[in-house]
Amino acid sequence: MAAITISQLTKVFANGVRALRDVDLTIADGEFFALLGPSGCGKTTLLRTIAGLEAPNAGRIVIGERDVTRMPPGPRKVAMVFQDYALYPHMDVTDNIAYPLKIQRVGRAARRQRALETGSHLGLAGMMDRRPAQLSGGQQQRVALARAVASHPQVFLFDEPLSNLDARLRMEARTFLKRLHADLRITTVYVTHDQSEALALADRMAVMDGGVIRQVGSPVEVFQRPANLFVASFIGSTPMNLLDARVDGGLVRVGPDAASIPESARGLVQEGEPVVLGVRPEYAELHPQRVAESIAARVVITEHLGTAFLVDLETAAGPVQVVVSEESPPDTGDDVFVLTNPQRSLLYRRDTGELIGPASSLAGLATAAAR
Ligand SMILES: Nc1ncnc2c1ncn2[C@@H]1O[C@H](COP(=O)(O)OP(=O)(O)OP(=O)(O)O)[C@@H](O)[C@H]1O
Ligand SMILES: [Mg+2]
User: Fold this and answer.
1) Residue 315 confidence (pLDDT)
2) Which residues of the chain have pLDDT under 70?
3) Residue whose CA is closest, atom 30 of ligand 1?
4) Per-residue confidence (pLDDT) for residue 365, from 0 to 100
5) Number of other residues whose CB lies within 10 A of the CB of residue 312
6) Can you give the pLDDT at residue 291?
7) What CATH number belongs to 238-370?
8) How do beta strands 58-63 and 212-217 pair?
9) Structure confidence at residue 172 (pLDDT)
C-alpha cells in the first residue's frame, strides 16, 4: 500500500498537445480516488504517466517513499486496467489472469488457485479454459480486471474498467470492486465517465479539464458545491441550471424576477455585481401561483424519469429544468413559478466563474449523507 504524490506534472506530446499542465495531486494511502472529466482532458495520460508508460516532461511522481518519476513500469508495482484492455490471445482465461503472478514467480498451483478465485468473483468460473476470442467484450473486460486484481499490486489504476458491461454486470462488478477495496485497501485511481460510479465507489474525486485539475473533494462535496462553473456544468446527471443574474436590493435579480440570495454567498456579494445563480433541478420547486422570490416560467415539455418528472421550462432568463415528484407533473403550456432553495442554491462570480463562499461548507452534512 502506498500514497501517490504528484507534483507539477506536465506532459506535452510530440505533436505539441499539452495533455497535463502542472498537475498537483496527493492520493492517500489506501484511498479510492475517482478521476472525472470530458473526453480528451488527460485522464488516460495521467494514469499512464503514474504507471510509467509515458514519461512526463516535467514534475515528479512519488509512490510510497519512492520517487518513481524515472523508474520503468515493472518495479513501480502498479496494476493498470486499460480502456482498451489487452489480453494475451494465445492464453486461456486462467493463464491470462495468472500471468502477472508467473512474472512474480508464484508457483503454478498457487497461481491457478488465485486465478480461479478471482475469476469466480467476477463470474468467469465457467470459462476459465477459454481463449479471449471465445469471450464476449464484457467477459474479456472482466478477465482484464481479474488479472489486475489477482496480482495484489501496491496501486491499482483503472481506466473505465466497466465500460463494456451491461447495467446489471456493471453493478455486480462495482460491488465486487467496493468489497475488494474494503478488504485489501489498495490505493486506487479510477477513471470513469459514470458519475454514479464515482459517488458509489470513491472516497475523493477530481474533475479535470484540458490537462488541469479543476476541483478535488469528496464526491458529495463536488456534487453539492462545485467550485467553479466548469465543474457545475459538468457534474450531475441532469445538469445544474446556471442563470445570469445580478445582485439587487438583497436579492438575486433574474430577468424581471428575483430569487433569494443563496445562504452560502450572503454578505460576500456587492450590490450590482454580475453573478451566475446555480440551481440543481432536484432542489427547485414549482408553484402554480406566484410566491415571494420566485421566477415566472412556462412549461415546454415534461419527461418521465421513472420515479419523477423532469420539467423543461422557458423563463425570461433562459431555459430552466426542474425535477418534480410523480404526483404533480404540470402540463405543457402551463404558467408556473420556480422557487429556488437558498440552502441549496449557489452563486458564482460571472467574471472568474468561481464559487462565492466556502467550497466545502456542506462537507460535514455531505459526508454524513454519503454514508
Ligand atoms: N500518444 C499521443 N500523442 C499525441 N497526443 C495524444 C496522445 N495520447 C493522447 N493525446 C492527446 O492528449 C490529450 C489527452 O488525451 P487522453 O487520452 O489522456 O484523454 P482522456 O481524458 O483519457 O479522454 P477519453 O475520456 O476520451 O478517454 C488529448 O487531446 C489527446 O488527443
Ligand atoms: Mg481515456
Assistant:
1) 96
2) 1, 360-371
3) 40
4) 41
5) 17
6) 94
7) 2.40.50.140
8) unpaired
9) 81
What spacing in Å lies between the alpha carbon of 208 and ligand 2's midpoint?
12
Domain ranges of the chain: 4-224, 238-370
Ion ligand 2 neighbours, Cβ < 5 Å: 44
Domain 4-224 has CATH 3.40.50.1000: no
With contact defined as beta carbons under 8 Å apart, do 259 and 289 qualify?
no
d(CA 39, ligand 1 centre) in Å: 8
What's the pLDDT at 360? 62
Please give the sequence-ordered ranges of beta strands (E in DSSP) within 136-240, or none if there are none: 155-159, 187-191, 204-209, 212-217
11 Cα: distance to centroid of ligand 2 (angstroms): 15
Q: Spell 333-367 as b/e; 16+ CB within 10 A means b.
A: eeebbbbbbbebbbbbbeeebebbbebbebbeebe
As beta bridge partners, residue 6 has 25, 61
Cell numbers standing for residue 126:
465457467
Rounding to the nearest 10 degrees, give the CA dihedral for residues 103, 35, 198, 82: -30
Q: Find the angle CA(197)-CA(203)-CA(206) to the nearest 5 degrees.
A: 75
Task: Look up the pTM and report it.
Answer: 0.88
Q: What does the block give as the cell for 216? A: 478535488
Distance in angstroms (rounded) separating the CA atoms of residues 263 and 261:
6
Which pLDDT tens digit goes with each residue over 225-277? 999 999 999 998 889 999 999 999 999 999 999 999 999 999 999 999 999 99
